[in-house]
Amino acid sequence: MNALPIAKKIQFLGAIVEGMGVRAACRLAGIAKGTGLRIIREVGAGCEAFQRQWIRDLKTTRVEADEVWSFCYSKEKNVPLDVPKEIRDRFGWGDVWTWTAVDAESKLVITWRVGERTIENAVPFMQDLAARLKNRIQLSTDGHNVYPDAVDVAFKGEIDYAMIIKEYASTPGNTDKPAHIRYSPGECTAVIKKRITGEPDRDLISTSYVERSNLAIRMLNRRFTRLTNSFSKRIEYHRASVALTFFYYNFCRRHSSLKGKTPAMAAGIATTVWSVRDMLFAADQKLAA
């Protein structure tokens, strides 16, 4: 990696964080696929370490949390039966969920966790969120039943927490329906706001911002694109690509609702819009340390 010109690294990473697949980005930068994957793994690790260190002591008062689905190696139902059971049951084969927590005011992705959609992942995710905040917050999540216990463990009642539950007329993906229905979201028929802890402001109970950030993830990270073959084949590369995406989203990408600022600038973490070169430098410095 040290022998590769910095300009090629920047060109490759710039294509990756804008939603291009690994093979296409490698062709664009004129590098081998193995070299590209090594850059993602190493720079992604540095980007994650940098954000874990600097995104903390936030003064936000409103947070929204959600999970976005992807898969690694294959979809859960397609994991080959001839794979040994101890390997097939190991995390990283099949469905992979990325838990995200977004500041509703600055749009900053405060923290994330790549794992299964279980209480064993919900608790450390919420504990990490709580450790990065200075103030009492209002938290909104969807109706996933593991959230109340996880929030209670992490915040110990010092939170205003509510769920927003959406009911749909149909579930997209039914094979007996025409394509324009199967590949469209189901029609929302009801929205239920449910207070769980504290005194949340009913008008501010929402998951709209975190759902919009989930869309940004799918737009910026090719591994989250549906109905393609650009999914991750190994979980370590999936984790690294997620860290790259969130670094680019937080520090480098201007947010239209923030008057040209990045989420990191709006949250008071950065003072300028960072470039992909800055991202690479920060990751390299963190890895060197």
Record the SSE blueprint.
Blueprint: H1 6-16, H2 22-29, H3 33-54, E1 62-72, H4 85-88, E2 94-103, E3 109-115, H5 119-131, E4 138-141, H6 147-155, E5 160-168, H7 179-182, E6 188-197, H8 208-220, H9 235-252, H10 263-266, H11 276-288
Parallel strand pairs: 1-4, 4-5
Antiparallel strand pairs: 1-2, 2-3, 5-6
Describe this structure in words.
By secondary structure, the protein is an alpha/beta fold. It has a single domain (6-288), classed as Nucleotidyltransferase, domain 5 (2-Layer Sandwich), CATH 3.30.420.10. 41% of the residues lie in helices and 18% in strands. It is built from eleven helices and six strands. It starts with 5 loop residues before the first helix and ends with a helix. The mean pLDDT is 90.
**CATH topological fold name:** Nucleotidyltransferase, domain 5
What number of structural domains do the residues give? 1
Strand order of the largest sheet: 3-2-1-4-5-6
Number of strands: 6
CATH architecture assignment:
2-Layer Sandwich
State which percent range the strand residues make up.
Answer: 15-25%
Q: Could you give the distance between the termini?
A: 17 Å
Name the helix and strand elements from N-terminus to C-terminus, one letter apiece: HHHEHEEHEHEHEHHHH
Biggest sheet descriptor: 6 strands, mixed
